[in-house]
Amino acid sequence: QVQFVESGGGLVHPGGSLRLSCVVSGVIVRVLPMGWYRQAPGKQRELVATISAVSGSSTNYADFVKGRFTMSRDNAKNTVYLQMNNLEPEDTAVYFCNIPSDDPSNWGQGTQVTVSQ
After folding, report:
1. What is the pLDDT of residue 48?
2. Which residues contact 52 (CB under 8 A, 6 or more apart)?
3. Nearest Cα to Cα of residue 97 among 116, 115, 114, 78
4. How far, CA to CA in Å, does 117 sit from each of 11, 58, 89, 112, 114?
5. Residues 85-96: pLDDT tens digits?
6. Integer Cα distance of 90 and 75 in angstroms
7. Which helix (H) or strand (E) element contains residue 25?
8. 29: left (phi over 0), alpha (psi -120 to 50) or beta
9. What's the pLDDT tens digit per position in 33-84?
10. How many Å apart are CA 38 and CA 95, to the nearest integer?
11. What is the structure's pLDDT at 56?
């Protein structure tokens, strides 16, 4: 069974940075596109970024994070990352990784990101 373990969240001031990690087990990540999602309190989970399989040469970002977030992958470690810069209070959410699809499943616990003064 596929499992996702996210880490790296925390409390930061506006303008700060964090780097999230997601270790994947139960599947060879190398051959899969991957995505980062987030869910803010009282809101639906939304897609933040995706990265293509194998080389990860293609990435796509939601408009609200373009230019601030960068997704990458390390296939040897079965891990994907999300570098988040210039964080805003609106980025406060629980962040998850998963395999992009119409109905992703097997969600991990996520990692909490809080952006506040």
Report:
1. 98
2. 33, 58, 59
3. 78
4. 9, 34, 9, 16, 10
5. 999 999 999 999
6. 31
7. strand 18-25
8. alpha
9. 999 999 999 999 999 999 999 988 999 999 999 999 999 999 999 999 999 9
10. 4
11. 87
pLDDT tens digit sequence for 5-35 = 999 999 999 999 999 999 999 999 999 999 9
Give the whole-angstrom CA distance, residue 106 versus residue 54. Answer: 22
User: What residues have CB less than 8 Å from 22, skipping those under 6 apart?
Assistant: 4, 5, 6, 7, 34, 36, 79, 80, 81, 82, 96, 97, 108
User: Would you state the structure tokens that stand for residue 74, as one six-digit string?
Assistant: 């390390």
| 3-state SS assignment for residue 37 | strand
The total number of residues written for the chain in this structure = 117
Rounded Cα distance between 78 and 23, Å, is: 6
**Residues 109, 117: Cα–Cα separation, whole Å:** 25
Residue 9 φ/ψ, nearest 5 degrees: -70, 175
What count of other Cβ atoms lies within 10 Å of the Cβ of residue 83?
A: 14
